[in-house]
Design brief:
By secondary structure, the chain is α+β, with helices and mostly antiparallel strands. It has helices at 3-36, 57-63, 133-136, 196-208; strands at residues 39-45, 64-70, 89-90, 105-106, 123-129, 146-153, 163-177, 188-194, 209-216. The strands form 3 sheets. Strands 5-8-7-6-9 form a 5-stranded antiparallel sheet, with helices on one face.
Length: 218
Amino acid sequence: MSRRGRATAFLLFALVAAAVGAAMLRGYGSSVVHGYGPLRQVVVLNAGIGAGKAIGPGRLSKAIGVRRVPVRFIPAGALAAPEEALGLVAKTALPAGSYLLASQLRPPSHGRRRVPGLGDGRHPVEISVSGADALLATGATPSGARVDVVVTTEPSSPGPGRTYVAAAHVPLLALGPGEDGSGPGGLAAATLALTRHQALRLIAAESFARKLTLLPVG
């Protein structure tokens, strides 16, 4: 067989081998799905949580994560999203690496520990804000501070836009970088303890305002 003929035969063999391998891989993937079921998101513990500990925004971001696992291995009552655990309290010690189950949690009103700042009909709400540099300048965690949320609108005519306090003296639960990870002078993600009326007002302001600014109280 000539050199060109051997090269052509080798190429055909490689193509056939690739096709057979792809078919085997598809068959294996199908067998896994049929054997264990489709993949679903489930909440897991990246770090242990002690008995009686409340799951606030800080512990939620550090100790709780998500994985996608076959439905066959997901226990009954497993949470599907970390937000489902926010504000609840661990009934017993929860070890790292385990699934987080609804039966392992209870409302804070049944125990001694509560998420600071929550109560009186307030719920944790995250909004994008400016002016976070002043709160972070000392290097201390601003959680627990009281702030005013000031809204500045886009001008509807020549001149500056309107500026007003949309939520006064509200508890700041957590403060971190925005989605774009911007540095000083950029947007930050603030988790505030808001009433339903305050939450709706600020969520609406995010869609039309030029900026939302946090001002420390006191």
